[in-house]
Amino acid sequence: MNLAKISQNGQITVPAEIRRLLGLKTGDKILFFQNDSGDIVISNASASAIKKAQLAFVGASDTMGIKNDDDVQTLIDDLRKGKSKTHD
After folding, report:
1. Buried b vs exposed e over 58-77: b needs ≥16 C-beta within 10 Å?
2. Are 22 and 44 in contact (CB under 8 A)?
3. Residue 30 — φ and ψ, nearest 5°?
4. pLDDT tens per residue across span 31-87
5. Residues of the chain with CATH 2.10.260.10
6. Which listed site, 14, 63, 64, 74, has its alpha carbon 20 to 30 Å from 38?
7. Which residues contact 33 (CB under 8 A, 6 or more apart)?
8. Looking at the whole model, is its pTM more than 0.70?
9. How many CA atoms lie within 13 A of 48 on its CB side?
10. For the structural domain made of 1-56, what CATH number should be given?
């Protein structure tokens, strides 16, 4: 169990063990939210954003017909040339 004290300004110091577990570094943002059980949860906002983005793109490569690195490079080249068609 880790305990943190709130300063007069409402600031807290996240205990070192919790920073390590969440992968927090100086300048990172943390997210506080209430889960379905009513508990307040703290998470690494950057890691949460990345996971959310990854979930949003699940299946996108199949939809776009991207099967390998060459297909990705072709898509990038097409986008740079201003082509907006999906990759076949």
Report:
1. eeeeeeeebeeeeeeeebee
2. yes
3. -115, 150
4. 898 999 999 989 888 877 677 777 778 888 888 888 899 988 988 888 898 875 554
5. 1-56
6. 14
7. 40, 41, 43
8. no
9. 13
10. 2.10.260.10
